[in-house]
Amino acid sequence: RQHRQRIVAGNWKMHGSRSFVSEYVPALLGKLDTLDADTRVVLIPPSIYIGEVRAQVQNRATQQPRITWGAQNVSAEAEGAFTGEIAAEMARDQGCDYCIVGHSERRHLFAETDEVVAAKVEQIVAHGLTAIVCVGETLSQRQAGQAEQVVARQVEACLAKVPGNSWDKIVLAYEPVWAIGTGKTASAGDAQAIHASIRKVLENMQAPAQTIPLLYGGSVKPDNAEELFAQPDIDGGLVGGASLDAESFSAICRAC
Ligand code: PEP
């Protein structure tokens, strides 16, 4: 297997509270002392709690930078009259290293297109953050045998504006829509096949296909993480539901 950065990112979605942060983060960090030195753990709370997560992680300075934090979404605009939005620069100002972009919930519930995702990726990398760019097919697309094609198109469109010198700021997350929050996971073999196909797409785009981390997401749990992460082209995971439990999430991180 090629040597690549390994990453486990926990997407809290719209869950958590100040008291959750103050209990969960110390509990999690206490369970990550034996983490593999090559693995990065990214905590991705709702943006209003990023400052609190940051403070908790910084209290355990010895674990940085292996344990870091990020944002779930930023605006496609740099700044201005966009009530309710946050800018990539603001995420950077809060010390974020990563930002999720193009999550299927953003695409389906907030009508984000590949073009919007591409504009957000541009903002994210321009401000020195790493974009975790989510792609994945729906159930009907998979059943129609179109999974590879759909994902290839998303990868090409979402990465269309990445400057040639910023590929080290890109992580892709393959998240089949039918596996997110459903308890259904792609088989390790099916996930690996899509990951391998994504590397081919990246190669065709003249991107450094062998060094870009590719994460799998969709109902990753302690009991399936090891098999998924053992696949040659799966470099870690984007974890939703199971990231809210320190015991489960730490087990997934250790499996990486
Ligand atoms: C996600 O939110 O990116 C995700 C994969 O969720 P879950 O792990 O709950 O399926």
From TrEMBL:
The active site is at H103, E175. GO terms for molecular function: triose-phosphate isomerase activity. It catalyses: D-glyceraldehyde 3-phosphate = dihydroxyacetone phosphate. The keyword Isomerase applies. InterPro entries: Aldolase_TIM, TIM_sf, TrioseP_Isoase_bac/euk, Triosephosphate_isomerase, Triosephosphate_isomerase_AS. Pfam families: TIM. Belongs to the triosephosphate isomerase family. NCBIfam families: tim. This is Triosephosphate isomerase. The lineage of its organism: Bacteria, Pseudomonadati, Pseudomonadota, Gammaproteobacteria, Alteromonadales.
